[in-house]
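sorry to bug you again but im stuck and you know this stuff better than me. theres a chain ive been looking at and ive put its sequence and its fold in C-alpha cell form underneath. id like you to explain what the C-alpha cell line says about the fold, in plain words if possible. anything you notice is useful, everything is just below.
___
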Amino acid sequence: MAKAKIFIFAPADQTGESHKKLQTAGCELVLGNASWNTPQGNSEGEMMRMAQGCDALIGTSIRSTPITRKIMESSNKLRIVAKYTIGVDDVDVDAATELGILVAHGPAESNWGGVAEGTITNMLTMLKKVRERDRHLKAGGVWRDKSFEGSYFGSRPDGYKGLTLGIIGLGRIGGRVATLLRPWKMKMLAYDPYIPESRFKEHGVERVDLNTLLRESDIVTLHVVLTKETRHMIGAEQFALMKPTALLVNSSRGMCVDERALVEALQQGQITGAALDVFEYEPLSLESPLRTLGDKVLLSPHMISSNVGSGLKPGVVMATDAVLAALRGEVADNIYNKEVIARWQSRFGSKSV
C-alpha cells in the first residue's frame, strides 16, 4: 500500500494504538486540536488546509467545526470520513454522499449499551430522589423525611398502575432501554416512524404517535439521531402537552431539545424535571440557566457511555479498521450512508492507495 494521508480531526485514542496501526500500514497522520475531552478544535479554514491531499478523515465528536462540504472538498482523493462515535450529526452526510465519500460510525455495544444503562440510572436518580436523600442525611436532616418519598416504577397486584415510559426512537438504545425495563412491569409507549411493527412487539411496547406519547408518559426519554427532522423536536409546543409531573431524559443529542423552551417549562412547572447528558452547545456554558435549577435538573458532561473498559475504545477500533478497508478499496460493515456504496465502489473499489 502506497503512503496514504490521514487527518485525525479529533484524536481520542489515549493509548496511541490506533495511530500506530495506521502508521504501520504506511499512513502519514495529521492531528487536529479537538479531543474527546474538549470538543472545540480547529477552525474550518484550518481544517480545510489540514485535509488537503488526505485519503481519509477520522476522529471523535467535534462541535466547534463540523466536517463540512468545504472540508471534504479540500481533497479530491478523500475516500472516507470515519467517526469513533455512533452519532454522525457533526458530519455533513448529505454532502459526503453527493461527493461519493463513505461515512463510517462506531455503533459499538459498549457505547450504545452504556447509554441505555445510564439513561435508566438517570431516571432512577431523579424519581427515587437519590441526591436529595443523600444530601439531607449528610447535612444532619431528620430521619425519614416524607418529602423525600420516591416514585414506584412498575405496576403492582394491589392496583397501583405504575409509571408510563415514553421512548422516542426505538433503535439500538431505545430498544435496550425497553428490554431492561420490561421486567419492571411498566407501561411502555414508543414513537418511531422508521421502525417496523415487529420491533415494537419484540420489546413489549405500544406504538403511538408523538403527541399521544407526550400526553400520557410520566417519563419521556429521547433516543434519536440528530437530523433536520429531529432538531428541536421537543420545544414549547411539546412541553405544553406533557404532564406537570413528567420527567424528560435526553441522552441523544442536545439540539433535539429547544433548551430555552426547556428552561421555561421547568421554571413554569410545565414539567417536573429533566435529566440531561447532552446540550445544545458543548461544553455547557458556565452562564447556562440550567445550572441554576437545582434538583429540577440532573446534568452530566456528555459522558453517559463512559464506563471502565468500554467508552470509545471499541469505536476507535471500528473506525480505524473502516479507514484501512477504504484505503484497500474495500467497504467496511459500519458504513452509515449505505446509499453511496455502489458509486464509491465504481470509483475506488479494489483500488489500494
